[in-house]
Amino acid sequence: MGEVKLLVSEASPRDVGRKIARIPPKAMVELQVSVGDIVEIVGKKSTCAIVWPLNVENCGDEIKIDGFLRRSAGVSLNDYVYVKKATAREARVIVLSPAGYKLSGLDEDFNTHVKTMLLDKPYIAGDYISVPIFGGNPLYFTVVSTRPKGIVRVTSDTAVQVTMEPKEVERNVPRVTYEDIGGLHEAVQRIREMVELPLRHPELFERLGIDPPKGVLLHGPPGCGKTLLAKAVANEAEANFYSINGPEIMSKFYGESEERLRQIFKEAQENAPSIIFIDEIDAIAPKREEVTGEVEKRVVSQLLTLMDGLESRGQLVVIAATNRTNALA
Fold first, then answer.
1. Helix pair 256-270, 294-308: axis angle to 10 deg
2. Within this chain, do residues 77 and 97 fall inside the same structural domain, yes or no?
3. pLDDT tens per residue across span 107-142
4. Helices (DSSP H) in the chain: which residue ranges?
5. Are residues 79 and 97 located together in one domain of the fold?
6. What global pTM score does this model have?
7. Which domain holds residue 51?
8. What is residue 305's three-state secondary structure?
C-alpha cells in the first residue's frame, strides 16, 4: 500500500478537535482514499485521522492537522509526515486516562457523554484528545489502550472506560495550540524560528556552531495575545512552562524575591527543555538609573545574573512580555 510525504501545516479552526486531516486531492487519488476514509499519520509516533480534501486552489503538498494530532504524531508545524491509507476495526473497549490531572466523581452519565464525543472517530493507543464538557473547559485524555489493538473506531457497542488517575505524570506543558491564536501569523513565525526551532532541533545550532537566543521580548497592548503566544510555542515544542508574574514576585522581605527567581530558573534548567515566561517584566526590571528601592535594584541584578549564567542555552529560553518597552532596563 502506497504512502505520501506531506508537510505539516496549521489546521482550520473549524477542524480543531474533530480528528480531521486535510490533504491535497492528488494525494487522495494516490492513496486511493475518499472523503471520510481513515488514514494513518506517521511522524515520530503514529496517529490516525479522518481524511478530507484541501481546497484545490490554494493547496500544496501539505497536510493540515490540529495541535492534538500533531502532538499525537510527535511533530510540529513544518515537519514532514508520512500518510497512508488505514483500516479501522470496531473497538470493543477503549481505555482513557486523564492527561496530567486526577478525576473524581465519575459516573455512568460522564462515561456516556465521553463516548458520545468519541463516536465514529478513529483512535490508536497513545492518542492525545480533548473532550468538550458542557458549561466548562474541555477535559484532556490520553488513549491508554484499545481492544483490539491498532487503529479502531468507536461505535455504539464500544465500552468506554475512563480511569481516575493519570497513567503517567504529565509535564508542565500548556494546552494552547497555534490554532487558538488569531491574527498573529507573522509573530508566530518569528517566535517559532527563535524559540521552537532551538528547543526541538538543538543539533542544527550545534552543527552550525551558533548559539540560539537566550530570550525573546514580546511587546504590545494588553490583551493582544502575548501570554497565549508564549503558551502555544511551549506546547508545540513540548517544553515545560514556568510563568512569573512580575508584580507578584516582588516581596518586602529581604532576599525573598531573588530566591524565588533562582528557584524557578533552577527548576527550569533541571527539567529542560523549558520556557520561562515573565509577564509584565517592567515591574521587576525597570531602568536601573530610575530605580530607587533597594529591592528593585537587587531583583534587576539577580535577573541579569541568571540570564547571563544560562548553561543549557537553547534548551532553556526566557520569554518576557510588556506593554511598556521604554520602561525596561
1. 20
2. no
3. 788 888 999 999 999 999 999 999 988 766 788 999
4. 25-31, 67-73, 108-118, 185-191, 197-200, 202-208, 226-236, 246-249, 256-270, 294-308
5. no
6. 0.76
7. 3-86
8. helix
